[in-house]
Amino acid sequence: MNTISSSVSDRRTATWNPRGNRRKLFGVIVAFVLVGAVAAPGLILTKFPGVAAHLVDDFLRPAFGDEHVARLERVLFDAQDCFDRLRGKRVDLRAIAPEEASAAAPPSRHRDQERDNKAAVPLPMNLHFGLPDVKALPGEGVWKRIGRDGLVATFVRTDKVRPYAVVSIVRMPMRSLRLGMAAGLKQPGGQFGFPGPGKITTDLQRNGRLVATFNGGFRYGDGHYGMQVENARYAPIVPGFATAMIYRDGHAYIAKVNSDRLPKQVIAARENGPLLVANGRLDPRTSKQIWLWAGDRGGVYVTWRSGLGVLPNGDLVWAGGPSLTPAALGKAFVLAGCVNAMELDINLFWVRFTLYDWDGHKYKWRPLNKELPDQGAVYLHGNEKDFFYLYRPESHIGNRSK
């Protein structure tokens, strides 16, 4: 009887031990704090990308330095990537579908051009599926017209480890369009005392010839890559890197520049890391991940990425999407048939492609798809980072023979 009572008493003591319960409670609290410390920044990055981007660039980088911030971002992005893979993240087809043209009719002087573009420019051949062992998504690799001016878009997947990582692709016909670039109010020349206009030119603001805008390259501190527009050198050109160049005759090309001085026929240039794709093949360095944003200080991580490529006929290709490695992005350019391609800016808030419609008085805009941020207004009023823009040359307005 005493033995039984003693045993019951021992169990009660073990069960209701205040010190042991306090330790367990403290452990649970610590676990919640640690999970929250990792999850909260990830939640902010995905739900409030603009707040997160400005917090990082305007506060964390100046306070702690690029190297430490790059390491912190790697931890956060690795945690998000691990979570996505474990939960089997799915593709939201409604979010990645290219946005249709605005319901507002274009001005009469553009109607003939729009009809001629549709009649004269057939859709390109569909792209080969990038993941042979995975069932293709509806519409994957199938080109779709987005608005007027011959722009077409599709999407592909190229990472078998992350079948939810969708790369959106836009093909831009440069026989009827022109490429421009503008330095931002802060990047890349702000620290040198050479801020850019941060917006499209005054004449494009007023004449309705703007077709699209998309993001430029990294912050100057993340690689020290150069930019020059006409006689304005916002950041010095560094030999050996991939460079998007605009020539005096209107065509654009992407290639590695081997001098700090641009050829005389080049009127604008933006460099941003080594080539992703060279001569139609993925650059071997993309698999080693040694040259990413912020150099190799933060190591490789999976995040939103974007890039620009050029086709053999001179047409340009923009590509971008979430959960991408440089290699996955490069493979999308190879699938699209690009000769050369380069990486542009990364992270959700900075990866952008916006389409514009002119109603006769002002622009209306829409992102390429619902996944991309709706930031079309900043390119009309002033953006802190550099960007590219597509426009119709004056000779194509109302000219049906072109």
What report would you give on this structure?
The chain has 402 residues and is an alpha+beta fold. It folds into two domains: 2-87, no CATH class; 94-396, no CATH class. It contains ten helices and 18 strands. It has helices spanning 2-15, 18-47, 49-64, 66-87, 93-96, 108-120, 202-207, 285-288, 326-335, 378-381; strands spanning 144-145, 152-157, 166-172, 178-182, 210-215, 227-229, 232-235, 241-247, 252-257, 266-271, 275-278, 281-282, 303-310, 316-324, 340-346, 353-358, 363-367, 387-391.
Percent strand equals: 15-25%
**How much helix is in the residues?**
25-40%
The largest sheet, given as strand count, sense and whether it forms a barrel, is: 8 strands, antiparallel
- Sheet with most strands: strand arrangement: 1-2-3-14-13-15-11-12
Overall mean pLDDT stands at 82
H/I helix tally: 10
Computed CA radius of gyration, to the nearest angstrom: 25 Å
Structural class: alpha+beta
Which series of helices and strands comes N to C?
Answer: HHHHHHEEEEHEEEEEEEEHEEHEEEHE
Query: How many domains?
Result: 2
Low-pLDDT runs of 5+ residues are 1-16, 31-39, 103-120, 289-298, 397-402
Terminal Cα span:
105 Å
Shape: globular
**What is the count of β-strands?**
18
